[in-house]
Sequence to fold (345 residues):
Amino acid sequence: MRVLGIETSCDETGLAIVDSETGLIGHVLYSQIALHEIYGGVVPELASRDHIKKITLLLEQLFVQTGLTKADLDGVVYTRGPGLVGALMTGALFGRALAMGLGIPALGVHHLEGHLLSPLMKVDGQAPEISTPFVALLVSGGHTQLVAVRALGAYELIGESIDDAAGECFDKCAKMLGLPYPGGPQVAKLAQSGNPKAYDLPRPLLHKGADFSFSGLKSAVRRVVEAEGADKLNHADLCASLQAAIVEVLVKKSLKALKAVDLDTLVIAGGVSANTELRAQLEAELSRIGGQVFYAPTEFCTDNGAMIAHAGLLRLMAGQSDGLNISTTPRWPLSELEPIDATAH
Ligand code: KG4
Ligand code: ZN
Fold:
């Protein structure tokens, strides 16, 4: 089965085709970062309009890249939520209409399920051996969640951020330093030459429960910036200290979650899972307890069409599909999803 996946939940227009046998066939991605940069964040209306402008062209590009045509598709899947409602609507309308014209099934995919299952995707003919149950750490710009994955599609929330997401904390602190959006990769780059112990930053809720909180850390960074001046302070040291604080919280909470559910396999996904310090520390900790950590290739950690195509393919193969109605779900808890019954096909 060959499926086209469409991601338009925020500021990336991503399209990809995956095959149930060979895995990822091709993908294209257009980022609107430059469009939103002068506003210091994503402007929802501009995002929707830009998705509309680019999506047809990107599909043409994808067909040229893969040598495939519309007739080669067996299904179309698109991000149904969570995300910006207008942006979601563009991908949903485009995908649903295309599937209807071709007489093939369509399905709305949960964006976070796309992230969560992206490390399992077959890329260049290779897929890692990951089997359920495992714990997933979802760390994106909008979400920070620890999820127990009992079976594919069966998600139990262990803990989540009660305020800012980890990626949001990276982004907002980077903005205070005058760094461009998205701030995570910028902070990570500067952190390489900084001293992680230079600033004594808080690790909120480190030993308290399974939830996260990053807004206090953001405020602590703001106080440092205000006291020392964004131009005068040592950016590398502050970035290294910030990264160390976020990574320590993510690592310790992940280990605690694994212990609580008695598992030793961790999957990390979402934009922040591209962070090399986070990966290195988790690898060291997991190997210490005889466990394993998995993550997607870096280009598939941030938003992309391939992860949506992959998650949607699994659901279509299990016999699931949506009707002709077009619905988006801007707020959608992962735990509300139906399990993916792999035995159904
Ligand atoms: O998953 P994603 O593309 O978008 C959402 O669904 O939110 O994640 C984007 C987030 C941004 O906050 C970005 O700063 C962060 O991922 N990010 C990173 C790195 N690369 C992207 N954070 C830390 N280190 C990185 N290397
Ligand atoms: Zn995302």
About this structure: Strands lie at 2-7, 12-19, 23-31, 75-81, 106-110, 134-139, 144-151, 154-160, 265-269, 292-295. The longest helix spans residues 235-261. Residues 52 and 90 are 6 Å apart (CA to CA).
